[in-house]
Amino acid sequence: MMDIQYLGNQELLKLQKTAFLASNTIPIEMVLKCYDWATGKHDGCVISGFSSKLEKDVLHFLLKSKCPVILVLARKMCKVIPDELKEPLEQGHLLIISTSKAVRQSKQTALERNKYICEIADNIFFVGATPKSSLYPLKEYYGTKAI
User: What pLDDT is recorded for position 138?
Assistant: First the structure.
């Protein structure tokens, strides 16, 4: 059973949620498509762990455009809020959710976090979820909507 903790605007959970899950290995042409997607208009909010390089880049673009974001951690809640997240938290554009008491993210806590994201998302974008990716079983189980 997960020990869920929240920091920020829990009202974001009521919005249409689009999950963005990206593998660590992405073809360059997909990266550019993801950047275009991230800088576009979004209905509802975007939910992700924002832990891969591409996910972190997408988070930056989303926060810049003031898109509502749900950041799901695969470890315990942050003690110190990163500077980039302070303003979106204060303005109600961000919800941070912790799904684990672990000090650091592990493969297991990341998998549990990604399952949680898939369970609560209305739409899911899997990027680079090839058979070698840890996201592949989730893509097979939850389906996909391509960018």
Answer: 92
Question: How would you classify the pairing of strands 69-73 and 94-98?
Answer: parallel
Query: Of 55, 50, 59, nearest to 26 (Cα)?
Result: 55
Distances (CA, A) of 2 to 36, 74, 139, 142: 34, 10, 22, 20
% of the chain with per-residue pLDDT over 70 = 96
- Which residues touch 50 (CB under 8 Å, ≥6 apart)? 56, 58, 59, 71
Residue 21 DSSP SS3: strand
pLDDT over 80 (residue 22): yes
Whether residue 105 contacts residue 51, with contact meaning beta carbons closer than 8 Å, is answered with yes
Name the pLDDT band for 112 (thresholds 50, 70, 90).
very high
CA separation, residue 116 to residues 50, 52, 71 (Å) = 14, 17, 12
Task: Enter the tokens of residue 139.
Answer: 């893509």
For residue 33, give the 3-state DSSP assignment.
Answer: helix
User: What pLDDT is recorded for position 144?
Assistant: 58
Please tell me whether residue 54 adopts helix, strand or coil conformation: helix
